[in-house]
Amino acid sequence: LGVKLKETKFIGYKENCTNAKIIAILKDGKGTDAVLAGDSLEVILDQTPFYAESGGQVGDTGELINGKNVFEVLDTKKIDNVILHTGKVKFGNFKQGDLLVAKINVERRLNIARNHTATHILQACLREVLGSHVQQKGSLVTEEKLRFDFTHFQGLSEEEIARVEELANNYLLKNYTVDSQEMALKDAKQSGALAFFEEKYGESVRVVTIGDISKELCGGTHLANVKQIGLIRITNESSVASGIRRIEAVTGKFAEHFIQDQQLQAIAESKKKSKLEEQKLQEKKRSAEMGNLLQSRLLELLEKKVKINGIDTVFSVEDNLDMKALGLLADMIKGKLAQVIIALGSQDGSRASLVIGLTADLCEKGLSAKNIIFQVASLIGGSGGGRGDFAQAGGNLPENFTLVFDKIKDIIIKL
Length: 415
Fold this sequence. Notes:
By secondary structure, the chain is α+β, with helices and mostly antiparallel strands. It has helices at residues 106-130, 158-172, 185-190, 252-303, 323-336, 360-364, 369-376, 401-413, and strands spanning 9-10, 17-27, 30-31, 40-45, 47-48, 62-66, 69-79, 82-91, 99-104, 136-141, 146-151, 178-184, 204-210, 214-217, 232-241, 244-251, 306-308, 311-317, 340-348, 351-358, 383-386, 390-395. A six-stranded antiparallel β-barrel has the order 2-4-8-7-6-9. A hairpin with a 4-residue loop joins strand 10 (136-141) and strand 11 (146-151).
């Protein structure tokens, strides 16, 4: 901080609001008395209910109020036991020595406390389900969620996650109080308190006890009773590093919202599935109808086939058939006749579709559907392509199918 300041007295374990005095105001890391509305500052008080970011728990937010002068605290941090209230001047101005009221965002603090108390309960449940080898290796506690890293040799199964969650919520139904006590570090260890981060503590430590299920060294803020958590829902389980797993969870109203979102998502997925199934059913129905239509047309076209130069020919304009259906119908005709040249057209508004099919024996004699389509595609105002036994073309002159068929007849006659 550049200057030696007296340690800030933290009273936030019991108080949400207190009278306080400004010890120093920092702007860009330097002391200042020139404070204007909108300025981003760090305010240091003689005492405060604001919890500073520590041990994975985020810092408090709230307001510092002196009459009509208001400073919005957006974050709280600690350096060398001096607590810094970081934020902006909303109204008025402040100076060193001012007396004010320091007031935290109580609802936010309560949500954070729910999540912090829940981390202790989840650690107890993880140890019960997975084994006593489970040890905390890090955590993050915010208003919206919690994250808990722990030692374990493999990912948790769905059954293990469900069991941990079930145990945790069963504990919430019991009337467990959350007690805290300052004691010597050696006494805390002898009492059986879990101390995975003991290097962060001095000789005097704070022990948080939840009924008979959890006892840990912890400097964070907690609830008075586990029932205040309401509900714990694990949202994710993942790997952080070799031998380190991570669970994420939500509590209270955030857990309720998560469940509601899951239910809405499940409903949406169900509707989507139903819609896809209905589409498949309709497609199957259309395919069956098309199959019946093509079968009916096949019989009629076989009756109308004409021999030209000793070769069976089938020329026809088919209403309401797309290119795919024309191709299927051509294949069906080839399957019924030993030696045939097929030309089928269809009109969709001003769009013309044309397919030409040949049986294999005609291809062996040198005929090619691809060559024929090249010669007639321009007549329907388009172009096409394909292979020896099948070709197709599209254009914008559907009224010229008669010219196409006449051209193909000339090609056959000249063979």
